[in-house]
Structure prediction request, 170 residues.
Amino acid sequence: MPLFTAFTRAALAACLLPWALVVRADDQDGPRRLAWPAAYAKECAACHVAYSPGLLPAASWARLMGGLDRHFGTDASLDARDVEQLSRWLQQNADRRPALAPVPEDRITRTARFVRKHRHIEPETWRLPSVRSPAQCMACHTGADQGRYSEHALRMPEGLSARQRAAWND
Ligand code: HEC
Ligand code: HEC
Prediction:
């Protein structure tokens, strides 16, 4: 085996072994596949779905990962090693479109893209017991835990009125 290949393999094994990778979709800007560290789904999907890294710019991920002990009114602290590894992965796979506006509260749900894509959804719909919050992507995007947000994996949450159903995705 050429030395280079042996070296690359060893280096890869050294980086990847401690955290198994799971390949997920990441279809924010067209279909793309992305390897997710298992620690991400384990640590960041306890209270909401593990959000695709492409949903926020790097600066927002950096602030979020730097303040996990004060995370939207809860404590989502991790050990330093997980924070470091997940931060690096989030930085590498963040939304990289140039000239992104700063995101209020570092919330995906306050990004220009989120607001635009959901502009037909009525405010009451977000508050339905079957939805609870716009941050609960899985209420409507059945593939969100796989990084899939396309229109092909959408369901209407329980409890929509006829009018809300009409406004759903016209
Ligand atoms: C102990 C529970 C908990 C854990 C663990 C947790 N979060 Fe959260 N997270 C929350 C809550 C609560 C909110 C606010 C949800 C809402 O407004 O409905 C939130 C919101 C968010 C948002 C903003 C969602 C929006 O409104 O657009 C992001 C991004 C986020 N979390 C990322 C993470 C990441 C990354 C991790 C892992 C490092 C993580 N969270 C782990 C509780 C948690
Ligand atoms: C109450 C239901 C609901 C919730 C909760 C919800 N969405 Fe959506 N989302 C929709 C609907 C409906 C559309 C389709 C809009 C259209 O095509 O007119 C959509 C569209 C999208 C799109 C565009 C898909 C495409 O192919 O253009 C993205 C990306 C997206 N949502 C991300 C999210 C994320 C991330 C979350 C959670 C932070 C979330 N959504 C929460 C209902 C929801």
